[in-house]
């Protein structure tokens, strides 16, 4: 197993069911990335990270935060590459991926399922 696999491999999903309140907050955490980027997932994670009864919500906020940080890195690369015109395409694709995967993650969270984004650097563990 390489070091890259350590950074990109998703952690195992938490076991147990999430209460409805946590599922609603998880839904909002995933969907907030479309408009607010990494800010809301960061706040939700910081508030709940030390509460063992909120392990599912902590996991989902971490997952959304890692995905939004990954997108931020892609956006910065896209802005830098906009000098050679491919950056606009990169940013458009990243924006579409943000919308699609955030909605999928929000719907899964609302059902109480632990969602894993298909690509995200796992910087927050």
Report on the architecture of this protein:
The mean pLDDT is 87. The chain has helices at 3-8, 20-36, 39-48, 55-81, 86-110. Helix 2 packs antiparallel against helix 3 and helix 2 (20-36) packs parallel to helix 4. With 125 residues, it is mostly helical.
Envelope shape: elongated
Which residues form runs of ≥5 with pLDDT under 50?
A: none
Instruction: Estimate what percentage of residues fall within beta strands.
Output: under 5%
Structural class: mainly alpha
Number of helices: 5
Q: What order do the helices and strands follow?
A: HHHHH
Helix content bin: 55-70%
What is the terminal separation in angstroms?
18 Å
Key attributes of the depicted protein:
125 residues; mainly alpha; 5 helices; 68% helix
In short:
By secondary structure, the chain is mostly helical.
What's the helix and strand layout?
Blueprint (H helix, E strand, L loop, with lengths): L2 H6 L11 H17 L2 H10 L6 H27 L4 H25 L15
């Amino acid at each position: 197993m390489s070091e890259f696999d350590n950074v990109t491999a998703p952690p195992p999903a938490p076991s147990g069911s999430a209460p409805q309140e946590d599922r609603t907050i998880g839904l909002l955490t995933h969907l907030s990335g479309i408009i607010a980027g990494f800010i809301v997932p960061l706040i939700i994670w910081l508030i709940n990270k030390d509460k063992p009864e909120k392990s599912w919500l902590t996991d989902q906020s971490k997952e959304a935060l890692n995905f939004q940080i990954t997108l931020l890195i892609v956006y910065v690369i896209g802005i830098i590459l906009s000098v050679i015109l491919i950056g606009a395409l990169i940013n458009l694709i990243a924006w579409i991926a943000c919308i699609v995967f955030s909605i999928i993650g929000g719907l899964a969270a609302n059902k109480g399922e632990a969602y894993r984004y298909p690509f995200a650097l796992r910087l927050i563990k």
